[in-house]
Every structure is written in structure tokens, then in C-alpha cells.
């Protein structure tokens, strides 16, 4: 089957394979239902709290009456045996059809992304709010680091101010590589282990610690300090990737397909809020303290990480 096959095509192929492998089960069921005698038994099987004797009753009564009329005990035994066999066969077919229907529903859910566990009502609203709150903290910290803290701290460590552009490019390049590595590794691990929240919490916490810890490498102007700062910054972005990859994967796992649009809108709104706070408010406050402002951003990010716990 081609990669461009739609969910309906795959389900249709599943139905064809099922019918072929089970000797066209659906056609047999139609023939049984069209037969007045078997329809009577089929209806009895659908009723609740029915015993095996009651399942066999329609055939047994009629066949036994025929046997009695012929006054033949041997025929009476055969009639009972045929009634039991037919009722048992019909019950087996009904169970296979139920199993087939459940398999079809499961495949449709998998293909359409309908594996979300979020429920309607207040619980869904709570999960959406938590999803958005965490996204504010993650976006706030990222924007603050990239647009405010990183350029200013790199400039503070340089002895030769003319090499600011080159030094900043190297630091950013290293962080991009480590971020990609973290996202790929943890993305594969989270899919294989089917766990998301622990990676998000650990990654966000270590990312926040790296934000506050970079200040200590800016106390001296030297190439060594800049090299150590580059390593710490790269490690921080590695852990950012550790948190970001499973966070993005939570959407189809925790929400139903009909809720994706709403959740995406909340993510867009909270990303805007985080960008405004990181680029404007904390940029303005940067001159107040080069240590306490990054620490405050790290604390806010860690606190908002608590919002992800209901999605565990």
C-alpha cells in the first residue's frame, strides 16, 4: 500500500482482507439473517441473560415436534444435536463479527489520531490551561536567552570586542547542534518508552539551571571563560530539546482530533505572551541585575513546569 493512502483506503483494504481470509463472513451473515429460522435464533442471542438452553430453544422445539410426530426417538436425538450445533455455530459467528468491528474501530482511531485521552468538560479545559501555562514558561525562557541574555553575556566576556559577531555565531551554532541532538535522541526514546512527562520535567529543570548558572562564567574576560560558557550554553540547549520534543508530542496523545484546533490556538496565544515577557519585560529589567533577572526567569520556568503534571 502506498504512503499516500488515506485512512478510508486502509480501512477498506482491512475489510477486504478480513472477508477474504474468513471466507466472506459478512455474506454468510446476510444469508443467515435472510433465513427466517436462523433470524429467530440471532435475535435471541442479542437479548441479555440468555442461557444455552434458551439459545437452542427455537430449533429444538420445532425439530422435536417433528420427531415426536414421526414417533422416532432416534430422529429426536438428531434434532437436538443439530439444534445445539447450529446455535453454537451462530454464536461463534456473532463473536467473530464483534471482534472484527472492534478491530476496525481501533484501526480507524489509530489512523485518524483519535487516541487522545482527554475527556470533555472541565478536565479538558484544565489540560488545555496547563498545556498553555507550561508553554508560556518555555517560550519566555527561550526568547529571553536568545534575544537578551546570550548576546550581552558573550559581549561581556570578550577581550576583543571586534570579534563579537564571530563569537556569538560560534556559540549559537554549538547550541543549535546540541538542541537538535537532544530533540532527536529523546524524541526516539519517548516514543519507544511511551513516556513524555518525565523527560519534560527533567529537561526543563536542567535547562532552567543552565540559565542561572551562566552568570558565573561572565565574571572574567578570557577565552577560557567564553569556551566554558559555550559548553554550558550548548548543554542548556540540549536539555531544552529534551523538554521540547516530548512536549510537542503530547498534543495528539492527550487531546482528541476535534480539539487540536483549540489547543493549537492556545499554544499560539501563550507563545505570544511568553515572547512579550521575555523580549520586553525582562529585557527592560536586565540592567537591574545580571544575576537575579536570569535567576527569576529560571524560577518562573520551573514553577510553570508544575502545570505539566496533570498530563502525566
Defining key terms:
312 residues; single chain; elongated; 11 helices; mainly alpha
Any chance you could write out the topology, listing elements then pairs?
Elements: H1 7-21, H2 25-34, H3 36-46, H4 52-69, H5 73-112, H6 122-157, H7 164-193, H8 197-213, H9 223-254, H10 260-285, H11 292-305
Give structural notes.
- The chain has 312 residues and is an all-alpha fold.
- Helix content is 80%, strand content 0%.
- The two termini are 36 Å apart.
- Mean pLDDT is 78; it is low at 41-57 and 112-118.
Runs with pLDDT <50, length 5+? 41-57, 112-118
Distance between the termini: 36 Å
Alpha plus pi helix count = 11
Q: Which secondary-structure class do the elements indicate?
A: mainly alpha
Q: Which radius of gyration do the C-alpha atoms yield?
A: 33 Å
Shape: elongated
Largest sheet: none
Q: H/E element string? A: HHHHHHHHHHH
Number of strands: 0
Mean pLDDT: 78
> What share of the residues lie within helices?
over 70%
Strand proportion: under 5%
Question: In a nutshell, what does this entry contain?
Answer:
This protein is an all-alpha fold. The protein is built from eleven helices and no strands.
